[in-house]
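Hypothesis: this fold can be encoded by more than one sequence.
Test: take the structure tokens below, design a sequence, compare later.
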């Protein structure tokens, strides 16, 4: 007969406890368990890994481990000219490709002292807001899915397909548009395109209530999100969290209003905020921002209709060289602050192009948010952080 036994062995700084079968096991104190979520896991939106220390079902500590998707984009920028960089820059957040392109061209145009044609400025603003709606609809549909609500994602994807149709018509791409150019846009707007945008924006606005009614009246969704994953203002400021996540905790910051670029200085930009800072508040802010972006898109369409015919871009030399110097251009991307720090030594390629992505900062704050919550709540919190893994592992 085998006697009950209990022992501990130290291997590589970790303690492995072997417990035999018998009454002696009951006398041993419970120990924390290390649990890895990811890097391939349905709740992590891609190859993100979370290293959790749990006590039973409750999280004691959390560490986001990144780098599984690192593509070295910043080093690739250094060996591409300023036209080629755009194709790389629009891919780190594949839900916000047009917005990613903007930061690069704005930085280069500032260094060149180049003035962009007014039609290009307003068209860029319109496309940026349509891209913002596309981004937010993805999360508005996928977040309830992670909590067990299947229907909203079908509604969200229906609206996304309508918007993607007008984006594809003008650029030829469904996700990676490559429509920005230094000095403006690739080409002028197709005939009748503004009318199709107006109809699509109206249709999407009219159907948002379907998603709203499905979610806000769902008792399970409310129970899983209210009071869960509360993020306070002080933590946001320490970690540099931005975008809808920050505004859901009362941080009233939006570059479109506070440091206007493109045509935002002439538009009535509304900034949706909440004070609760929980998962439900983040979802509410996202839905409000969709409504506001649709209003901005309508305003851009009306302005473009009133503008006289004119150029959509500036003529560039065959070899584009940027004067020696440095600048920082940042934009209010759908997921938060996106910035490019450009350093030039007068060549056709940047000496350095540093990317400040929104998702990188937003995901680091999980180490502060997750401890004290149940593992089941981790899924709700993670889904409400609205990140793209490529935007973390840039």
């Amino acid at each position: 007969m085998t006697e009950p036994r209990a022992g501990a062995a130290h291997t590589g700084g970790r303690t492995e406890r072997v417990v035999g079968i018998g009454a002696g096991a009951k006398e041993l104190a419970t120990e924390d368990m290390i649990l890895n979520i990811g890097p391939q896991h349905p709740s992590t939106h891609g190859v993100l890994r979370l290293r959790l220390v749990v006590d039973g079902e409750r999280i004691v500590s959390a560490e986001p481990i990144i780098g599984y998707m690192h593509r070295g984009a910043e080093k690739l920028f250094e060996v591409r000219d300023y036209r080629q960089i755009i194709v790389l820059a629009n891919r780190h957040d594949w839900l916000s490709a047009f917005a990613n392109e903007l930061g690069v061209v704005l930085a280069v145009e500032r260094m060149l002292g180049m003035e962009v044609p007014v039609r290009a400025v307003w068209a860029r603003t319109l496309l940026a807001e349509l891209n913002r709606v596309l981004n937010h609809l993805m999360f508005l549909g996928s977040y309830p899915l992670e909590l067990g609500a299947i229907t909203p994602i079908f509604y969200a994807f229906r609206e996304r397909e309508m918007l993607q149709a007008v984006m594809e018509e003008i650029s030829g791409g469904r996700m990676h548009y490559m429509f920005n150019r230094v000095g403006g846009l690739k080409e002028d707007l197709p005939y009748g395109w503004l009318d199709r945008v107006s109809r699509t924006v109206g249709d999407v606005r009219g159907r948002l209530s379907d998603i709203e009614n499905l979610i806000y009246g769902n008792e399970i969704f409310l129970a899983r999100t209210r009071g869960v994953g509360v993020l306070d203002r002080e933590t946001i400021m320490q970690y540099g969290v931005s975008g809808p996540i920050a505004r859901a905790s009362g941080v009233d910051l939006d570059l479109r209003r506070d440091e206007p670029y493109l045509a935002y200085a002439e538009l009535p930009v509304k900034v949706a905020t909440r004070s609760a800072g929980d998962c439900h508040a983040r979802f509410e802010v996202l839905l409000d921002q969709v409504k506001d972006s649709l209003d901005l898109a309508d305003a851009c369409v009306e302005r473009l209709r009133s503008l006289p015919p004119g150029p959509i871009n500036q003529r560039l030399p065959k070899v584009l060289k940027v004067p020696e110097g440095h600048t920082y251009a940042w934009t209010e991307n759908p997921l938060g602050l996106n910035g490019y720090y450009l350093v030039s030594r007068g060549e056709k390629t940047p000496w350095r192009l540093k990317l400040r992505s929104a998702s990188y900062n937003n995901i680091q704050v999980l180490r502060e948010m997750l401890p004290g919550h149940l593992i089941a709540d981790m899924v709700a919190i993670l889904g409400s952080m609205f990140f793209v893994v490529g935007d973390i592992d840039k």
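The chain has one domain: 83-359. Residues 1-13, 15-29 have pLDDT under 50 and may be disordered.
Hypothesis status: open.
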